Amino acid sequence: MVFDWENQNIIQKNKLNSHVNIIPFADENNTNYLEVGLSPWYKLLNGEWNFYFTKSPLVGPDDFLSESIDKKSWEKINVPSCWQLEGYDKPHYTDEAYPFPVDPPFVPDENPCGYYRREFKINSKWIDRNTIITFEGVDSAFYLWINGEKVGYSQGSRMTAEFDISAYLKEGINQLAVKVIKWSDGSYLEDQDMWWLSGIFRNVYLYSLPKIYLADYEVISSLDDSYQDGKLEVKLKFFNSFKKLVSKNTVKVKLLDQKNKTVWISAEEKFEIAAESDKKIEIKTIIDKPVKWTAETPALYKLLIIFDSELNKEKEYISSSLGFRRVELKDGNISVNGKKIMFKGVNRHDFDAETGRTVSLDLMESDIITMKKHNINAVRTSHYPNDPRFYDLCDYYGLYVIDEADIETHGFMFTTNTGELSNNPDWEEAYLDRLKRMVERDKNHPSIIIWSLGNESGFGCNHKVMAEWLRNRDQTRLIHYEPDRKQEIVDFNGPMYSSVEEIVKKAEEKDYQKPLILCEYAHAMGNGPGGLQDYWDAFYNYERLQGGFIWDWIDQGLLKKENNRQYYAYGGDYGDYPNDRNFNLNGLLFPDRTPSPACLEYKKVLEPVKFEAEDLTKGEIWLINRYDFKDLNNLNFFWKILVDGHIEKSSQFEVKDIKAGQRKLLQIELDDLERFKDSEIVLEINCLLAESKKWADAGHEIAFEQFILKNKKRNHNNKTASKLEVLEGENKIKIEGDEFYYQFSLLNGELEKSIYKNKELFNKEPEFNIWRAPIDNDEPYEEKWKKLNLDKSIQKLKSIKVKEKSEDKVVVEKIIKVGVPVYSLTILVNFDYLIYADGEIEVNLSGKPEGDWPVLPRIGLKIELDSSFKNLKWYGLGPGESYYDSKNAARIGIYKSEVAKMHTPYIFPQENGNRTDTRWLSVYNNNGLGLFITSEKRFNFSIHDYSIKSLERAKHQDQIIRGDKTYLQLDYKQQPLGSASCGPSAAEELKADDFDFSFSFKVNSSNIIAFNKLY
């Protein structure tokens, strides 16, 4: 027996054709398309439903279609929801592989199935009309019954399915039954990088239409060739469900502006409709100089359709928004309203850590507001059409959208090739259906400027058919599909994970004439990505490069609660096999939607206002407007002078009439700075919103920049204090001063004692360290690192001696050889401990690698301190973490914190919390005792209440063992982040064969409170 859910030629039964959202209103004064609850003809069916779960669609409850059910044998479930997160079945994560045998169109016999039941009430006003039931998202296939009668079938998880249920209804209580099947032949087209989750996961609702009704409409709101006047076309399609001709029908269209003022009203169109037939009406006009829609200026008009018929009891009002904008290829670039734009984009999944693919309107709105606050202007709905309300929000707040069809067949890479179904004509209709449903549902949104044919499904004949249909259907938007590498059917080159070098090489080809936009880049998995600034420097330096879409928006960690534990789960945490572990944790946001350090870095490199130094001695700085359309008159500008991290002076300055794409040379008065001759002087410029916007309050920072006007001169003061005493003997070297002493072992070379005021400063001597807990982007290196045992390095003392001694300074020289088990890789490290009479200890390190070392994780010192040292203050980049290739968002300043707060909670634990370009650091206990650390050169540091081993062993945040000590890492260098978890390696690697290293730190413990007050 061939089942519907195992037959690619059966996509639906009795389902209505896809169309735009049509909810009629009864009152012209209450026609807000965003508030459909105001309509008397709308009934939301979300809530608690009865639910029965089985392991096969061939098994179900006996009373499924009965007028009433035995509630004792049924359970309750929330609709919408994913049943795996309601206690049935288990979540399963794969990136590429299908979690079932690949044998299309067939799926396993063990195929979980959910049976849903609920009642709803229909009153007499609805009975005389047509009633439509809408399912906005059901994974992956389902049947529908009303009052025990089968209505129809549908598949295609992320697309709306509607059925006309008028003939099945009765006045009063009606029974609704839905059978949802987990796996179907459609699942072969839904192999996206995300959790496999099932059920009715989006809204379910009823709406009522009169017997003669508006069945669909298309709004084309473009611009003329001068980009000044609006060209408005409204294409209406009516349907007469009577079995007779209806001759007296009228329709007119109104256009209202942002202040709800009528801009235009059409003449009343009169028409007749034949029995059970369609009627198409087209209304066109020219709108004089409308306010144009862009992502920067999302000006929306309200379209109101007023329809009346002699056989309908009352008028119907249908409303939607529209924006006047024109999208085209112009001079080799994608342009909006005649101007080239930059895509400062992000890929986004519909995802909530607690509800999976069921995402509330508030959460969607929160996402878009966060995007706008972080200078993001574009989103790709990877890799399927999103919840319909998401596009309304993109229209309103202003985001360019690539709307992507629900097609991905990645898992065929393990059998034949990813394009197996794409090249199979038997699957053509299944491909086309998904494209058509997306386009017909979403066609009126001004935010959607590009259609995508799907993702990672090879390239084949079915894509060519899709593109041909789309070209004929919509000439107002462009087409994207990444696997079309030769751009046979698409409008631009949209590769993924290309390196900066690769896109630059492409842009420099003399005969290359198409735009290049990275549909995915900068894989934000765990700690990373690095190198974002390099991409954006390239985007702005080459005409054909127009930005890209970072991967991706949010970590897909599911909040899991078990055995008094609560943590974010990833692949394998539910016993799911096969799985791709934590490869779904690659978002700019953590699962709780807190912005990650990468999100802050992305905001910085995307800034629409930039500042570049011309002549800092004269205070000359270029201000560059990188908006595509706006001037800078809606922004306030401030500057301030920082002297050794403290604000010395500040002021506001005026910027006028700098149009989009222009630059202006600023002159900032920098007088009276000579008196700070021994200090570091920094100029900071801030750009803030002057007035509140839909997405941010006045005062929100859009951009900033810092310029070092003068570097600090290092003081080398002679040490004045009591005399030092050196005691040698009994296999020890002891250096004593006033209230402190240091003691070295001559047997192993360790600094055994570091006592100040009877308090041990170091729990363990500073130890040379080359290891870090691998980050996700260390993927190209980690296997080799561990094979070479870099995480198990062993140190051997070569020699230790007092190299120099006087009353005010003692130098202890220690030479060690660092090696790894099994291999003959060594680093000869020379330690010089310079101990001064005031208690300061300076540690000078130099070294030379020997052997065929790989790229190293880091070069530095790790220091164990007492756990009471839990406070810190530093001068350098902050307040958040920064790394060599990801520090644009950090600012030079003085910062205070606590050790426990220096942790960045990447869901899969890994190296985190580094601060770069540090000038000084103090670490101290509540009594003011501790360490004050400086260096001749700026340094990196991180500090935690857990060890590197504890961090590396943990697989989730709650498994990190904390609190026994304070662990300080001082680094000369650390391997950059890159984005090699899925993309290019770091631009500049820490290669051992490129260097002989030399660096130093000074540690003073005499009076931390005094130092903190001084600095």
Automatic annotation (TrEMBL):
Keywords: Glycosidase, Hydrolase
Keyword Hydrolase annotated: yes
Domain (Beta galactosidase small chain/): residue spans on this chain: 734-1002
Protein name listed in UniProt: Beta-galactosidase
Gene Ontology BP terms: lactose catabolic process
Example of a GO MF term: beta-galactosidase activity
Enzyme Commission number(s) from the entry: 3.2.1.23
Domain of life, source organism: Bacteria
Gene Ontology cellular-component annotations: beta-galactosidase complex
Organism: Halanaerobium kushneri
Reactions catalysed according to its record: Hydrolysis of terminal non-reducing beta-D-galactose residues in beta-D-galactosides
Similarity comment text for this entry: Belongs to the glycosyl hydrolase 2 family.
